[in-house]
Design a protein that fits this description.
Low-confidence stretches: none
Shape: globular
Helix content: 40-55%
Largest sheet: 5 strands, parallel
Structural class: alpha/beta
Distance between the termini: 11 Å
CATH class: Alpha Beta
Mean pLDDT: 96
Strand content: 5-15%
Oligomer: single chain
Number of helices: 6
CATH superfamily: 5'-nuclease
Order of helices and strands: EHHEHHEHEEH
Length: about 140
């Protein structure tokens, strides 16, 4: 299953491995889920994960990003016809559309108003895990 993972879910999953975001990160690590991404998303992952406040080791972040890039599905996307409330979230929806992802998982549902999603399913981590268990 191809998904787009907002940076906040990746960070939450690494910080809280026993909650829904952690389950999602484990599913990505096991190959059960494939991340869809582009250079902008990979760059944001790197920038955020390397912030000192999280305390992640540089070599661990590099290994994770290498894995994500190697195992992920990299696409080139087109700009959205209408801006999202937070412009920095646009790459996530653009990539979801470009790769035909089954969904986008984010901790900020309000940043992806239903009328602007263009048919992309957007879930919180908990909603995603609930829906995934039904499949």
């Amino acid at each position: 299953m191809r998904i787009v993972l907002d940076t906040n879910v990746l960070v939450s999953g690494l910080l809280s491995p026993f909650k829904a975001p952690g389950e999602i990160v484990r599913m990505v690590s096991s190959g059960e889920l494939t991340l869809c991404l582009d250079a902008r998303i990979l760059s944001e992952y790197s920038e955020v994960l390397l912030r000192p406040k999280f305390g992640f080791r540089v070599d661990a972040v590099a290994a994770l990003l290498h894995f994500v890039e190697y195992r992920g599905h990299t696409v080139a996307s087109s700009p959205l016809p209408e801006h999202l409330p937070d412009l920095s979230d646009e790459p996530f929806l653009e990539v979801a559309l470009a790769c035909g992802a089954e969904c986008l998982v984010t901790g900020n549902l309000a940043h992806f108003p239903t009328r602007l999603r263009q048919g992309v399913a957007v879930f919180s981590p908990g909603e995603f895990m609930g829906a995934y268990r039904i499949l």
